[in-house]
Amino acid sequence: MKVTRREFNTGAAATLAGYSTGATAKPAPLHMPAEWHRHETCYMALCAAHGLYTQAEIKRIRKEQATVAKAIARFEPVVMLANPADVTLAKALCGPSVTIKPLAHYDVWTRDTLPSIVLDAHAKARAVSWNFNVWGEKFPGYDADRDLAHRFAATLNLPITRAAIIAEGGAIEVDGDGTLLTTESCLLNTNRNPGKTRKQIDDGLRKMTGAEKIIWLPGSKADAVTDGHVDGICRFVAPGVVLTEVSDDRYDPEFEDLRKTAKILENSVDAKGRKLEVIRLKRPRWAVMPKRGDDFAASYVNCYLPNDGIILPVFDDKKRDQEAFGVFRELFPNREIVQLRVNEICEGGGGIHCNTQHMPTENA
Question: Which pLDDT tens digit goes with each residue over 111-169?
Fold first, then answer.
């Protein structure tokens, strides 16, 4: 299976020392396309967080990851990163439609641990390192993921630019037309950017993504893992159109934060001066779901948009699962929707989108 014109280099050039594809003196202006821009490849990473999960939990997480990878592979090439000791197992789990590449890592959250891929002024791919610091130094064992963005870029011979701020890919959402969404609870948190002003963080985001306008949302007071990543709250579905999650369930720990977010969006304009069209999507009801951990990521918008498809999570609220399917079907009538149960992944505080990182097609 032809994955990409770039081939992985797992030899000396892929080591951290020296970062052979380190930042240039003055990179060209950067632009982050929206996720519906065509993809060249989707990247995932097979769970190897043995210090965080039990062996039984890792087995269940890996099974769900393989299901997600095979579903995405129906629409675009998928590369599953695996630690060298796990390559044979990864091939058996994922089958022939997914390419397995050895690269040392720890956990599954490639949206945050891999670089964001942007395009330069010549529509050539470039990597952005957000200086991953384990979501504000929350968990031990992530040493292999701290430098993963740079080692990954080296394997693809991608030039990489280090951002002047600390962030994660899941902390930002762009419409590809100049507007970026992010949250105060995450990027203004002192565990990410101590001593930095909102303007300094604004400037760091603009420089790395080409954003002309940044809309700051409250985020989440309840999210103890990511501090309220925007990709679990709302997503652009077209320039000027935002799908945002709300809850009518008082048991939902983000009930009030979601309401505030929807109101802010409904009173916002984008970089082009358009009043945002805001579509409210109800989350699954905590009251009807089986008891989950406090970090369970019950978010429909934490889905993935491969070329011509949508990989959408389902939970244990059949009514809301069906409603979510209907909303996505109306918004994306020409895309095939694949619904998957990913409860084991979501128990870790993230979802399908958090498990993926895409490479936009150059000159698309």
Answer: 999 999 999 999 999 999 999 999 999 999 999 999 999 999 999 999 999 999 999 99
Q: Which CATH architecture has domain 12-360?
A: 5-stranded Propeller (3.75)
Q: Percent of the chain, pLDDT > 90?
A: 88
Contact 253, 218 (CB under 8 A): no
Q: What backbone phi and psi angles, to 5 degrees, belong to 250?
A: -65, -15
- The band of 28, judged by pLDDT with boundaries at 50, 70 and 90, is low
Give the pLDDT confidence of 239-283 residue by residue, as tens digits.
Answer: 999 999 999 988 899 999 999 999 999 999 999 999 999 999 999
> The whole model's pTM is what?
0.92
Q: Quote the crossing angle between the two packed helices 87-94 and 55-72, to the nearest 10°.
A: 50
List pLDDT tens digits, range 184-202. 999 999 999 999 999 999 9
Residues designated as active site: 354
125-129 and 99-102: which strand pairing? unpaired
Give the torsion through C-alpha atoms of 236, 237, 239, 243, to 10 deg. Answer: -50
Q: How far is residue 74 from each of residues 63, 101, 137, 257, 330, measured CA to CA in Å? A: 17, 19, 36, 36, 22
> Which ranges in the chain belong to alpha helices (H)?
55-72, 87-94, 110-113, 134-137, 143-146, 148-155, 184-187, 198-209, 255-266, 318-331, 343-346
Q: Are 172 and 209 in contact (CB under 8 A)?
A: yes
Query: DSSP readout, 140-206?
Result: SS-HHHHTHHHHHHHHTT--EEE-SS---GGG-EE-SSSEEEEEHHHHTSTTTSTT--HHHHHHHHH
Burial environment of residue 38 by CB neighbours within 10 A (0 to 12, 13 to 18, 19 or more): middle
Residues with Cβ within 8 Å of 156's Cβ and at least 6 positions away in sequence, in order, are 4, 6, 8, 9, 127
Whether the CB-CB separation of 339 and 313 falls below 8 Å is answered with yes
State residue 16's pLDDT score. Answer: 32
Sign of CA dihedral 287, 262, 116, 36: positive
Quote the CA–CA distance of 121 and 20 in Å, as a whole number. Answer: 22
